[in-house]
Amino acid sequence: FENFEIFKAQSGGHQLVELENGELCLATHEVETIDGKSYIRCFIYVTSNNKTIFNKKFACTQISQYNPASPWSWGIQSRGSVVAIGEYGQHGQCGKVWYSRDYGETFYEVFDLRDNAPDVPHAHVHGVCVDPYFDRLYIINGDGSPVSSPDLLNKNPRIWYWDYSGEVLSTNLKNTITWKYVNVGEDVSLGSNLQFACGYALKDCILLS
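Given the sequence above, the corresponding structure tokens read:
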């Protein structure tokens, strides 16, 4: 490997995806101090000019108290010109999902788990999956309610999906989308409180892990 540096984040980068136009999409995190406590904020960069210029696109919508053991992750997937990014989110601060169909040049908010999870204090966005065969975006979320809330147990793990072909892009896009979902957490044939973390679309199926 050739050792060289083209970009250095303030605190660190934790996910890097090459887009199909040859540019990069990078998720970083930065630690900042507020009232004597350390907090973390995540940022998304997309490169231009053949990976030589790193353009900051947006920041995570929540700022969370720093814990070195926590997975400060984003779900990023790109197929064709479509880029989807999901915010993992702290418990009680469920994340949003962002969508681009111009290789990350412009992003639109399309989903907020706080508006959709049955049990917001115990939900995360685990991953996103772009299906180029059906022009469909999947959102994989999980984590379940404690036993002290039996009426909500197993209701959070879901796979949401939206057919994005023909959608008119606007800053109001999220409010024009009707999301559908499959509740995998309540499917007893799959096991107790089954959760998936990521997915990848093939021509005839979706692989889930």
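The two ends are 30 Å apart (CA to CA). Try to locate this feature in the token string yourself.
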